[in-house]
Amino acid sequence: MKTLVNLLFLLLALVPFTFAQGSIADSIASLPPCAISCLVTAVKASPCTLTNQTCICTNSALQGSVEACVFKTCTVKEGLTTKNTTMTTCGAPIRSKVKLGRTVGITLGCVSAIFVATRIGYKLAVSRTELGWDDYFIVITFMFGIPNTILIDRGTFMSGLGQDIWTVPFAEITRFVRFFYVLEIFYFLELALLKLSLLFFYERIFPARNIKRVMWATIIFNCVFGLTFVIVAIFQCRPISHYWDKWDGEHEGKCININALAWANAAISIALDIWMLAIPLSQLVHLKLAWKKKIGVAMMFFVGTFVTVVSILRLQSLVSFANSHNPTWDQWDVSNWSTIEINVGIMCACMPAMRVILVRLFPKVLGTTTNASYHAKYGNRSQDLVKSGFSAHVGKSKNGTGNASVINYTKTFEVQHGDNDEEVLVQMNDLGNKGKVTSNHSSEISL
């Protein structure tokens, strides 16, 4: 975060003003001495007078002159005080995105909670299947998401996020930056945990040895990636407190390039998302499934691309991250997109389990059935077929007379459906014993 003095009159030329009825003399008297000196000097060199409020508020050359002077002579806090007085005197509108931000955070937090609770509750209470590592990690991700949502709602928004910084008390600015520091660490941690949940899901449904090796290599990389950024985020400033103290320019300390840290994390995360999507799609062509089933499975994996799209959209909010002159306003976008990314990621990770639940609830709408009819002519080899497990009886011709050369064979077989059929994509016959429903099908073969 650069010195906030630079924000003093940065936006004055861009804001359409309606003018307040207050006394211009009272406003000037409330300015810090350094700002008054700058204003008097700039007015003398302009066509305006100190009593002409309209001219002072609309003359861009005068504003630029005052801005340059305040940059050199005033402290950050004096600059913020001047900015607040100037904007108030010139009738600039008070902006706020607090309500929108809180609505987005609470809504997405509740929806992701419903997804996780439904997924885990179904497995434990209905299908009675054992939880896998992917289930444990989605729960851990959500458990970190709860305090994250609370910190955003009751911390950053209550400390000025979504408002112009010159309208926020100095103590609240420090409190806002401290909360933002914690949220940055939480974001790096939740992102890594979310990817682990998806990776363990892939590792479970693709049992081929070569794919398992690729998955475990990716899991190890993701762990190193997440742990590295969490540690760097914690110790990015020396002392650590300099992260939230440096905004006023009155404290000693040193920080790494925070903007570069945010961009590096985003770039690696997006590249890892693309790699994680390529792994299951590369195996889809080898699965012995009907083409409709393959499309359904592919769509299940493509749901995860929405998170990648959100990550890419979030990059735009990082353009001015850590370099903003109005951080409480500009970093609203970073906070908002990060909230969307994590919560939508949790929902996408729960999609395969949610589809199994929906198929069970609405089998006629979402289920799939296959009817097969087999016809073959084997002559008089009925004895061999009966030994193979077929039951035989003499059929009748169309005119009702018996015909020894036509025999009807009926075979009864069982098809087992399991709640994890949607997940076991490669070894479809290895279904275990839990969560299965058995149905009988009869196929009549005419020979």
From TrEMBL:
Transmembrane segments: 104-122, 134-152, 179-202, 214-236, 256-278, 299-322, 342-362
Compartments in which it is found: Membrane; Secreted
One Pfam family per UniProt: CFEM
Chief place of localization: membrane
Residues annotated as domain CFEM: 7-114
Cysteines joined through disulfide linkages: C34-C74, C38-C69, C48-C55, C57-C90
Domain of life: Eukaryota
Protein's membrane topology: Lipid-anchor; GPI-anchor; Multi-pass membrane protein
InterPro entries: Extracellular_membr_CFEM_dom, Rhodopsin_dom_fungi, SAT4-like
Residues in the signal sequence: 1-20
Keywords: Disulfide bond, Glycoprotein, GPI-anchor, Lipoprotein, Membrane, Secreted, Signal, Transmembrane, Transmembrane helix
GO cellular component, one term: side of membrane
Family: Belongs to the SAT4 family.
Name recorded for this polypeptide: CFEM domain-containing protein
Organism lineage: Eukaryota, Fungi, Dikarya, Ascomycota, Pezizomycotina
